[in-house]
Amino acid sequence: MNDSYTNFLREISLTNDWLLLMPEIILALIAFAILGIDLFLKSKKRVWREKYLMPVAICGYIFVLGILFLDKSTFYIENISHFGGLIEQTDSNQFMRSFFVFASLFVTLISGQFLSKKSLPKAEYLHLILLSCAGFMLLVQCSHFISLFVCLELVTVAFYVLVAFQRTNVLSLEAGLKYLTLGGLSTAILLFGIVLLYGISGNPEMNGFINDGFQFQALQSFIGLNSDNLIVQLGALFVLAGISFKIGLVPFQIWVPDVYQGAPTPTMSFLAVASKAAGVFVLIQLLQGPFLALDAFLIPILSVLSVLTILFGNISATGQVNIKRLIGLSGISHAGYLLLGVIASYTIPQALDVVLFYLSLYLLSSFLVFASLAYMDNEDDSLLETKNYQGLYKKNPLLGVASLIGIASLAGVPPLGGFIAKVLLFIVAYQAGLYGLLAVAIIGVVISIYYYFAWIRSIFFIPNEDNTDCLKEVITLTAPQKIILIILIGSVSLAGLYPSLLNFFI
Amino acid sequence: MTIGINEFIIVSSLLFLIGFLGVILRRNTIIIFMSIELMLNAVNLALVAFSRYNNTMDGSIFVFFIMTVAAAEVAVGLAIIVMIYRQRQTILVNELNQLKG
Predict the structure, then answer these.
(1) Could you say which of A153, A240, A311, A344 would form a disulfide bridge with A432 (CB–CB 3.0 to 4.6 Å)?
(2) Among A199, A196, A204, which residue's Cα sits nearest to residue B50?
């Protein structure tokens, strides 16, 4: 036992490549710098603290994005196990790294106004967003269950705090508690699955047993030999259940509407985009990595989940008037479409790229909706309903157009980016021969038009005089807010007209 | 009678099941938390047993990570429960039902 242990340590120290993780380390350092600034300039320079924390975080993200794009080769060595098999880098997870920095950057940008309005502490919020960004970036590169678990929990625990961040708001606290209990449950289920896989794969009586029962490649070779073993299948199911919770696939979706409604708007957008993207990516990595040989067992289960998710998300969203619950429920249906791409990636390798394309368009169009929601500057987002969007175009044309483009792109209206993403996804599903699933997905899209268009209609609809309106009469935007909205509108429309532009990133 | 791997796994699965039922059925938030802890400890027990039986150290190392993460989770969870109690004077799950639609 001691021998294998020292070998493990030796192997780890030989393959330690800290430079590769520099972007994550820089983000973590900035996170602590922000806490430090907040702590040491507590009373004296309050103005300084309020004013400069946000730019420090934003500059940090832009710097990390810059080094990820410009100096790619320093932080990326392909297809070699680093840190003794804990970390493995591929083209797709390099793309996801930049994806998460983008998502965190947007969340930071829309959180400023929200935090000032509710007079919530800025430093802690920015700190947690930075840390969970670093966690996400590590999570997608993991190729070992220990590092996967630790990164997942880094993100999840940060999210518990971010969801319950409005400490005096009962809705926010309730959402935090619900996320915490169900998150804890899903963590335990994920862990039990990991333990079953570890226990069975290291069992000396098994055919082709391995010493490193947490490592993805070792597990892949073991499961390849024992794909019909009951405990292996049970373990894989438990692990997938834990991951499905993060994505919000149907039997594990109960938390989604409640948590989305109660959480602060910036947190909700981070949860909707980054958490879902990370879950989908980890799911792909597990299915194409350790669980590759279980395809005959898993594909039927995944197909059923996909059908249920698409139908549940769309049907339950049709009767929904609360904006944040609507976003949550329609997000569930998007998870279902993504699962379609995940299933297609078993037969068609390009499906992975299509899923990444869909995720990036989902990021852009969702943030367009979320940014307009945050900039509408109403008293309590949690109680906002579709009818409160009435007359938005008249009150502020830019906000109206931004919401319109965002919602239309989520619905998949041509020629916006969301349309191209959906078409590509459906083409891949068609090529993979998933005709039944494709039919369900198209029915889902048709249903989704109903609620998305009801939402769009109220933007241009002039409200009745007696309408109790929780929006202000005149909404004014600051110059940076206008620039953010225009950039997002531009990129969503351009991605629809010239989808090949995104090839540069993928 | 010697206690082998099977006994450990049966005890651990039972603990996991008790914890799961606790999360699903109980209404007091503190008890729900204890049940989640019970599930995590069931996992720890299984990990240590497998680690001993399989003769690899990884499982025992993983236990430390799980304990650390569980501690962090409880710290955040109790803070949220205290805040909820201050706002609502209750921590029963069925009375925390303001989010619905």
Answers:
(1) A344
(2) A199
Question: Final residue of a domain: which of A96, A124, A141?
Answer: A141
pTM, two decimals, is: 0.93
B83/A180 touch (CB, cutoff 8 Å), yes or no? no
A429 and A457 belong to one structural domain: yes
Which one-letter DSSP state was computed for residue A206? S
A497 to chain B, closest Cα gap in Å: 38
Query: How far is B36 from chain A, CA to nearest CA, in Å?
Result: 6
Q: What is the pLDDT of residues A178-189, one digit of tens each?
A: 999 999 999 999
Q: Is the pLDDT of residue A335 over 90?
A: yes
Reported as a single tens digit per residue, the pLDDT across A278-303 is 999 999 999 998 999 998 899 999 99
Choose among A159, A127, A392, A145: nearest CA to A282.
A145
| Interface-testing mutation among A181, A197, A209, A256, with chain B (most B C-beta atoms within 10 A) | A181
Query: Residue A384: which domain range?
Result: 142-504
A177 and chain B in contact, CB less than 8 A: yes
Number of folded domains that form chain B:
1
Nearest to A181 among B23, B40, B65 (CB): B23
Domain match, A64 and A193 both: no
**Tokens 């793309």 -> residue:** A95
Strand partners, B92: B28
Verify that A303 and A181 share a domain, yes or no.
Answer: yes
Q: What is the pLDDT of residues A423-452, one digit of tens each?
A: 999 999 999 988 999 999 999 999 999 889
Measured distance CA(A234)–CA(A242) in Å, rounded: 13
